[in-house]
Amino acid sequence: MSGIHPIRVLHAKPLWIANGVITGVLALLFALFYVGANIAPADHLTKLPVGLVNADKGAAVGGKQVNLGAGITESIKKSTADGDKIDWKVLDEKEMKEELGKGRLYGALVVPADFTSSATALTGTAATATPARPTLTVLTNQSAGSLGSGLARTATTQAAENASLQVGKELTAQIGTAKAKLPTAARVLLTDPAAVTVQDGHPLDPHSGLGLTAFYYALTLVVVGMLSANVISGQVDHALGYTHNDMGPLRLHRPLIRATRIQTLAISCTLMTGLSLLMGTLVMAGAVGIMGMDAAHLPLLWLYSVCAIAVTGIGALTLLAVFGTPGMLMVTLVFIGMAVPTAGATTPIEALPGFYRFLAEFEPLRQITGGIRSILYYDAQGDAGLTRGWVMMAAGLVAAALFGFGVLGWYDRKGLHRIPVETTPEKTAVPA
Fold first, then answer.
1. Residues 6 or more apart whose Cβ sits within 8 Å of residue 369
2. C-beta atoms surrounding 391 within 10 Å
3. Residue among 132, 84, 139, 144 at smallest CA distance from 110
4. On the CB side of 115, how many CA atoms lie within 13 Å of its CA?
5. CA–CA separation, 234 vs 269, rounded Å?
6. Is 358 helix (H, G, I), strand (E, B) or coil?
């Protein structure tokens, strides 16, 4: 037995250096990914899609047809006040509702059908009448993300207020000196004639977390898959006799069953696939059945949940098998560290710095969140994120299989076994 006290291991510099580097880098990366992505979304905002609808039917003024709504939408579209921050998409009402219902717009500004008639009526209001203000409607879309909807609301409200002031100038110029004959209330309204109302453009069910249940449900699937991969990897190693299991004060160890690296990964992936049926069922039962989350298309939600856990778990198992102990750090960074800021849930993709937008193109959580959003909020429409979710999960599964089994096959061919194969000593001839 060694006479060295275990506490003396703390005197070993390599122990401090190795752990310091790993934990320090991990802390720094999480700070960069989480804080860096969300610290100034308005400053990084680029081409946030917002609808612009002119439903104004116009009105005859002085024998001439006038459409103030057309002028408003045209001036907003050409405005440089927001630079490239807002991508104004001129649509009709039907197109706008369809785009809101697929999460492709974060909001919209609507000029109603009677806008011109209501606005021009202010110039001829009788002294005894109460002037009626025309309205401009700002539509929000929390289903696309609360922060994105808030940024869109700010932009559309500002645009509506500016449009109201511009319309006031135009109406004042049209009536000229006749403005003095109008009632006091009408003259005040002419300065800023339009009222701005805010409405929910795509209402959600009350138990939808203000549009965040899709994100948290998807995050649950990813975390369950990732953590289960770590558990399954350890249990398979124990079953094969490569590692021991500590159960409180008891240490359990099984006889060694030699397996190639490919065989070990195949066993782990099979176990993950089978258990994903159980995990997906329990996640949905917990969220919908116990907690009361609003959800439709339950069979589809169950199937998508099972597949998301399986693909995430197999991806994590691949990294653990290929990279060994450092693989868990890589799994944490890929599925949590880089994934949460780029999921497009807390901060819209259009408000992320360029590097994060690049990550968002393939980060698993964003793809899974898009599919869950489609199922929960957009009637499971394929072009609302569900098709992309299925395609990217399939691509991720193929990539994990090719990378994992390809690299592990190379390890096996090179004889890089987890436990070296015992060689039989060569027999030497003994002289007679």
1. 214, 215, 218, 219, 343, 344, 345, 385
2. 12
3. 139
4. 29
5. 13
6. helix
CB 309 within 8 A of CB 221: yes
Distance, in Å, from the CA atom of 190 to the CA atom of 279, rounded to the nearest integer, reads 62
How far is it, in rounded angstroms, from Cα 120 to Cα 140? 28
Determine the Cα–Cα distance for residues 366 and 248; give it in Å rounded to an integer.
39
Over residues 389-404, the pLDDT tens digits come to 999 999 999 999 999 9
Token reading at 277 = 């049926």
Mean pLDDT of the chain: 88
- For the chain, the maximum distance between any two Cα atoms, rounded to a whole number of angstroms, is 136
**Structural tokens at position 59:** 């009105």
CA 39 from centroid of its chain's CA atoms: 17
Helical (H) or strand (E) element with 250: strand 250-252
3-class SS at 107?
Answer: strand
Q: Determine the 3-state secondary structure of 2 from DSSP.
A: coil
If 0-12 CB within 10 Å is exposed, 13-18 middle and 19+ buried, where does residue 9 land?
exposed
CA–CA dist 71, 170 (Å, integer): 11
The helix or strand, by DSSP H or E, that contains position 200, with its residue range, turns out to be strand 195-200
The separation between the first and the last C-alpha atoms of the chain, rounded to the nearest angstrom, is 44
* Contact predicate 317/276, CB 8 Å: no
Strand order across the 195-200 sheet: 86-91, 48-54, 107-111, 135-140, 195-200
Three-state DSSP at 80 gives coil
In tens, the pLDDT along 269-305 reads: 999 999 999 999 999 999 999 999 999 999 999 999 9
Tell me which amino acid residue 333 is: L
Pair 259, 287: CB distance under 8 Å: no
Per the listing, tokens 């004042």 go with 172
Residue 74: count other Cβ atoms within 10 Å of its Cβ. 13
Distance CA 32, CA 53 (A): 39
Residue 13 vs residues 9, 16, 17, 18, 130: alpha-carbon distances, Å = 9, 5, 6, 9, 84
- Neighbour tally for 81: CB within 10 Å: 11
Name the region of 209 (left: φ>0; alpha: ψ -120 to 50; beta: rest): left
- Residues 6 or more apart whose Cβ sits within 8 Å of residue 14: none
Q: Are strands 107-111 and 135-140 parallel, antiparallel or unpaired?
A: antiparallel
Stated pTM of the model: 0.89
390 closest CA partner among 382, 378, 401, 379: 382
In whole angstroms, give the CA distance from residue 14 to residue 389. 44
Instruction: Return the structure tokens found at 401.
Output: 């299989």
Residue 302: Cβ within 10 Å count? 18
